[in-house]
Write a structure and sequence with these properties.
alpha/beta; Rossmann fold; 2 domains; four-stranded parallel β-sheet; disordered N terminus
């Protein structure tokens, strides 16, 4: 009898254990909530421009930052046509709002930019400047487009029929001088007999005066012009004179007369700076190499219909020299002395 009772108890215990195991196996397991990745911080970028953004120099920066807004997802805000007296105030307003990067053109506001950058060391200041970088946060850049300017000079020297080539530029400061001198160097290399007329309007943006000076040079025999400043192309269109644009692709301003021109592409610089800020590697530096042909920061605008109009030997010469520049086999001389007519 005891054995039967013991057997029954063992059987009941075994069934209970099996039932508990089955219940445990059938009980749904709770899943841990998926870990959410923190949202990537949106980089806030501001720009302060001394001129209207239609002026090609500041326009080149603005164009690159618009591209960064579309492709890199930055927040981009800007203020244009800021006078020297208001430049520091506008800079501080952006800095106080917590922008990560502030771009712009210093030059006439150089001291103001450096004062503000010093007061906000955690903000990346990236400015066009004729001076050097300042630790820890002020980087400098410039339009190092003397290489494609030289290539335009080769074309001008080859196609002029009067042996008179004209240049109208802004202000004779180093960054303008080296572009004009490179253009002249190209003209003289292929046509030592050519005379190059050089005029300065004395400001960064005065299309009316630039046009007047261009008309005066055309009156003196110039049949090819270099439009370093905005306004020259209007004169060339009016007088049916071939012309090279500057900084931006300006073919649309006068399709029958704008052959090509040095293009300053700020995209490599802008992209490099934004990515450096994102990954925490940004530091003050001279960004000149990002504005030269080897890294894509400088190039010739497309030839459009002039690809068929220009002599074949001229196009071949330009292509050969361009390849040598990109491969480091040829360096365009950098001469920042004020250029003179002659």
């Amino acid at each position: 009898m005891k054995k039967k009772v013991l057997a029954i108890l063992l059987a009941v215990l075994l069934v209970s254990v099996l039932f508990a195991g089955c219940s445990s196996a059938q009980k749904p397991q709770q899943q841990k909530p998926a870990e959410q990745k923190p949202a990537e911080k949106v980089i806030k970028v501001a720009a302060v421009y001394a001129t209207p953004i239609e002026e090609p120099w500041d326009g080149a920066i603005h164009k690159a930052l618009l591209k960064a807004k579309k492709e890199l997802g930055i927040q981009y805000d800007w203020t244009e046509n800021v006078g020297y007296a208001d430049f520091e105030k506008v800079l501080r307003e952006y800095a106080d709002k917590g922008y990560d990067i502030i771009f712009g053109d210093a030059f006439g506001s150089e001291d103001a930019v450096r004062r503000v950058a010093k007061d906000y060391p955690k903000i990346a200041f990236v400015f066009g400047s004729g001076e050097g970088p300042m630790d820890p946060n002020l980087s400098v850049f410039d339009d190092w487009i003397q290489e494609p300017a030289y290539l335009c000079g080769l074309i001008a020297g080859k196609i002029t029929k009067t042996n008179v080539v004209g240049v109208v530029a802004g202000v004779p400061v180093p960054e303008v001088n080296r572009i004009v001198n490179a253009f002249i160097y190209g003209v003289k290399e292929v046509n030592p007999k050519a005379k190059v007329l050089v005029s300065f309007i004395g400001s960064w943006f005065n299309p009316t005066k630039a046009k007047e000076m261009a008309l005066a040079e055309i009156q003196k025999g110039a049949d090819v012009m270099y439009a370093e400043r905005y306004g020259v192309i209007d004169a060339c269109k009016e007088k049916h004179v071939y012309v090279f644009g500057n900084l931006l692709d300006q073919h649309s301003l006068a399709p029958n007369y704008v052959i090509t021109g040095p293009v300053w592409d700020m995209w490599p610089t802008v992209k490099y700076v934004i990515e450096s800020v994102k990954n925490g590697t940004y530091h003050a530096q001279d960004l000149r190499e990002w504005s030269m042909m080897a890294k894509g920061g400088a190039k010739l605008a497309p030839f459009y219909e002039f690809k068929d109009k220009l002599p074949k030997d001229v196009l071949e010469l330009v292509q050969k020299k361009e390849e040598e520049i990109k491969e480091g086999k040829f360096r365009v001389p950098i001469n920042e002395a004020p250029p003179k007519s002659g």
